[in-house]
Amino acid sequence: MKRDGIVKGKFISFEGPDGAGKTTALNKVVTDLTPVLKDKLVVTREPGGNRISEAIRHIILDRKNTEMDDRTEALLYAAARRQHIVETIQPALDENKLVLCDRYIDSSVAYQGAGRQIGTTEVYQMNLFATGGLLPNLTIYFDVPSEVGLQRIMTHRTDEINRLDVEQLSFHQRVRKSYLEIAKAQPQRIKVIDATKSKDQVVQDVEKIIYAANQEFFN
């Protein structure tokens, strides 16, 4: 909303199982929105977004780190997220910018809580502590069957396959199931996109949601 002509910052996260195409869609959305929003648009990712968080990302996703404990993995994601908020997200929101983030808390709940089976409630509570309770104003969830997502990865991302991509199908099915449960429980925040559609249609659907929920940035 606007206060005395000033637009309040907004935070949008992009979520989805591996192979859903969310990053591809995000990149196209950024291309379309940048000429309109210019320096009011901030684009970032998790884990990552700054030097410390990117260093943690490398440790988490490195395929050589097969001995990493599941709870260690969850804690590292939360640590990277905390630094991301302090150094990148919150400053942008304080400057009344629109922040688009590739993954956030829902990823940890789905991947570590459900996928790794260490507890969705426990992972969620840990991340609320790490983030100080900061949740996105809007989350766009890209839904695709696990089998389809994994096939896309093996076909199109052979040079970028990370430690989570190579998990068994059952792992990815638990991740998707958890995402859908989160979306059902929080329909006001989370909007579901059918990611089996064409890339152009998916991007069109995403941009329609973003424009409708953030009209103050486009007036």
TrEMBL record:
Pfam families: Thymidylate_kin
Enzyme class: transferase
SUPFAM superfamilies named among the record's database cross-references: P-loop containing nucleoside triphosphate hydrolases
Domain Thymidylate kinase-like intervals: 14-206
Gene Ontology CC entries for this record: cytosol
Described function: Phosphorylation of dTMP to form dTDP in both de novo and salvage pathways of dTTP synthesis.
Family from the record: Belongs to the thymidylate kinase family.
UniProt-recorded name of the protein: Thymidylate kinase
Organism expressing this protein natively: Pediococcus cellicola
Lineage: Bacteria, Bacillati, Bacillota, Bacilli, Lactobacillales
